[in-house]
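Cross-posted from the bioinformatics board.
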Amino acid sequence: MRKIMTLVVLVALAVSVGTAAFAEADKPLAGRSISIFTAATGKDETFAEFTKDTGIEVHYLEISSGEVLSRLRASGGKNLADAWFGGGVDSYIAAGEEGFLEPYRSPEAELIPDEYKSPEGYWTGLSLVAVDLIVNTDVLKEKNLPLPKTWLDLGKPEYKDELMMSNPTISGTNYAVVFHLIRLFGEEAGWDLLRKMHENIPFYTKRGAAPPNKAAMGEVAIGIDPYDVGVQLVAQGYPVVSVFPEEGVPGAISPVALMKGAKDMEAAKAFVDWCLSKRGQEVQMAYTAKVGTRPDAEVPEYLQGLKNAKIVVPDPVLIGEMRKGILDRWQQEFGTKAEQ
Amino acid sequence: MYLRLERLDKKFEATEAVRELSLDIERGEMLSLLGPSGCGKTTTLRMVGGFLRPDGGRIVLDGEDITALPPERRPTATVFQSYALFPHMTVLRNVIYGLKFRKIPREEALSAGRAMLEKVGLPGAGGKTIDQLSGGEQQRVALARALIVRPKVLLLDEPLSNLDAKLRVRMRGEIRRLQREFGITALYVTHDQEEALALSDRVAVMEGGRIVQTGAPQEVYGAAANGFVADFIGRSNILVLEDGSRVAVHPEDIRLSSGGEGIEGVVFDRQFKGAVVTWFVDTGGRTVEADVPGRSGDAWRTGERVRISFERESATILRE
Amino acid sequence: MALKQSSSAHSKGAFLPDASSVLYALLAGGVLVFILWPTVAILKESVLVDGAFSLERYRDLLTGNRTLLKNSLFIGWWTTVVAVSIGLCCALYVTRTSFRGKRAVLGVLLLTLIAPPFVSSLSYIMLFGRRGLVTWRLLGLRWNPYGAHGIVLMESVGLAAVAAFLIMAVLRGIDRSLEQASFDLGAGRWETLLRVTLPLARLGIVTAALIVFIRSLSDFGTPMFIGGNYNVLATQAYMTAMGSFDLPKAAAISTLLVVPAFFVFLVYRKLMAGAPLFSSKSVASGEERSLPGAVRWFVFAVVWSFVLFEAMKYGAIFCGAFVRTWGVDFSFTLHHLKTLQLTKLDSLLRSVRYAFAAALITGAMGVVLARFLGRRATLFSRAVDFIADLPFILPGPFFGIAYLLAFNRLPEAFLGTGFLIVANCVYRQLSLGIKSGVSVLGQINPELEDAVRDQGGGSLAVLRDVIGPLLAPAFLVSFINTFTFTMTTIGGIIFLITPYTKVLTAEMFDAIQSGDIGASSVMASVIILVAMTVNVTFSWLLLKRRTKGSEAEYVSSVGAAR
């Protein structure tokens, strides 16, 4: 009959299943690989070191912490990944409260100060992400603009269309900035400054790393920058400088956490342990331009500069509590310019 | 009889394509199914080949009832009107295609194929592809393919209709020669009556799904069973006699004379056709065509009065 | 009277309950499960608010976000006008002039067709951004590159190739003797062009416009990267789905996008009902200088401007792959290539694997379904055919979000196999597979089947010796098309990416978003290279087998299918 056609289709199916099976080699087999949501620079090198140390393969998806939270909420309880690495602590807090995270107090976290850890054990701080400004000196010269020194400077009308920032509902780092400004200047003045800045921002990008990149490319003069991104841009030779606003910058906690229902809890725990170990912390500091939370880990030369900056660590509980309120208001007032 | 068609019926939706058709074909005989478009001749052929299931009746070949057999199990082979040669195979592979179903080993098949190609007049063409062949050559390949499997009955579905006139005549002879040489029983479908007359042992004239006359070519031509046959085969003049009866007479049987007995008429046109000259005579409303040998040239002139006569035997009485 | 249909005793309604029926049921079932169900799922989600039926999402969209719809239509309209114009000029250039360099033009068109859609945005920023190579370094301009103008420019330039191939196919198929008759009767070249050629090409031009319009509506990457503030429905759908993961809202937005697309779809089906995909009729070769002089030079100018622009575009990308820091440090480096090898090789291999799998499956399924669907005109088979056609014309985000909604509940482990991504690509391109199968089948002399039977072969032999080999071109066309598509698509599958199923286009998308020029350039170059190679290799294979004269049709149809 149509035997030959059935055969052809079966062969095709077999090949595709076989290829899928080939692809299934990516699936977590017991104890050997884990999946991670992450929003961090230097992750390839970091994970490579982890794999070298432990033999566990890492499969990651680069995704902002705000997006992770959204996905978790939409997942209906289904487990999406084994662990979560980096991003804004505010999302972690919310996720913990909503029951998406698996509490785990790693033995490696003993030496880490309490203010960098979740009281319920949902997450542990890896490092502090400082926020600075990446400023393109060529653009400044060309447009005859002064170098901004303070946050308030950013609200000045002379910088119209020259400022770039990410959407805080998506980018944890930028939410920390918003939170920081409100705490710094108070409700009234804080939102007022944000409004003035809004006038200067052509549109809000989605990725935290986009504003400094755009500044480096000369698309705008100033980009609000997660410090680790800017460091690399300077190194690549772009005509940019890093500026820490004088009033102080937020040092957002970048945490790590276990996801509830992780397929390979053992391997995932090993991952968390490694990240918080001295060795893991030193690796991260080498590649991710963030100062680690573990005091006994050595801080490399190029990060020493951070020590001079006035870094304000936001209250981890407060930053979580106020998230919904702040973001709702933000969305209402400024959502139109968002790429969202 | 070698091949017997017994009361075959075939209906397509509302139309009856073939009605109660019965026919006996002798072994080694070449029989033509002749008729106009829509008369059911191709339908009949396809039923013999197994491509259509008859609604009623039987087909018996060499003593075996093959009515229920699918084409692949029937000992028949078809030369299709479009030749149906496999475009993606070489000529040789086309020819030997059927042998693999008879479990003939490849080597043997190849040499049989080459031999057959020689037989049909295409020596050494085995390596060519179908699109490199002319119409006549493709015809021969189709024939070769059908003959090589030694079918009990060879079925030919208007095989020459796609060729030009001269080639048709030549291929006619080739087909007949091969059929005789292999002694194969053949059923030949055509609408060209000259073709049917020229190459068949017998002709079956069909109309409206039935056979109206079967017989040797001379019979069918000279002794038409009815008006339809008379008109379809060759050309016929319809004449009304004194007693009111109507007869059909072929043009070559018409005698023209300046005087004497016969129907009166006036010559009004002439067509020189090489071998014959046709005179057109007006007999008061009816036109009569008379064929005389070409060399007789200008026997008459336009406007001349003539008398038309013919032999009694050469007239077919028409009973409508 | 010759019965011109194969009336073998085993066809014509004789529905034998055997392996073939089961196969048909399976394939038809696949179409229903993987096309109809997701479509229903997304439509359902968009009208369910807290479990109850409500159109409030649509209301909100239409009242509050009317600018989105307006913007989408604005961009769609202008892109269509420009793209079809350029495409028409290219088509005329290749088929109606005797200018040289046609191969270059065709090559560039093919390149544009194959390249991932939003790669244009990358080179736009590189060349025409605020600090772009052309606008800033060369011309010293100071302008705002973001906005509708950039979007229309890059979208139309990218879609011109689709239009060009479609119109070329139709122009080629026009019986030249009609034009010759026009000249013969005394009409000048202008008149012939306007009264004979263009009206006859109407079908192709309209189809091209329809397809370009839909593509423009579905494009979310270009507006996202270079639109700046200018928001369109497609981008909004993407943001809503990926950013806040508000799937029901995203569903509503995508559905809104579908409305114009669906109308276009109906018109498209009506138009395509008569027109065969591969025409085998031989056309009288025509005089190649049949265009009026002014038109010829206009066409020349447009085409070569286009070609140069595209060359510049892709040149920038290929250069960007090897330049240290675009815009700053133009020194040569292999750094980006090495980074790709280190970190993205996995994704590249995965992309290729998925592409192969999808191509094989679509090729096989398309050909088998063509056999089943082409023979019957039952209500069921026509329904299956209609459904199979849907995804071809639906916007990527719609179909992608639909899959997300329909299959989200499946265990993550299963999703990690990439099955959904492959399925998404397969069913998006299946209709081309079916169409080419049906087209080729339709040209197979039905008496060939009878000849096989006559010689003693059964159904198996028919398939093995005749249908199979003769359908190979259809399989190959489908294969090439699906491979290229899967390799270069992002629109639908970006919603289906998990840590285990990252494909190179998604990585490239991320890189462009982050502004990493080097990484995105090198990834773009690799994707284009792989797709080009497979395309050229398999096309060569295909052209070897096909009868002469139909290569043009093949190229045009592949172009049309993209």
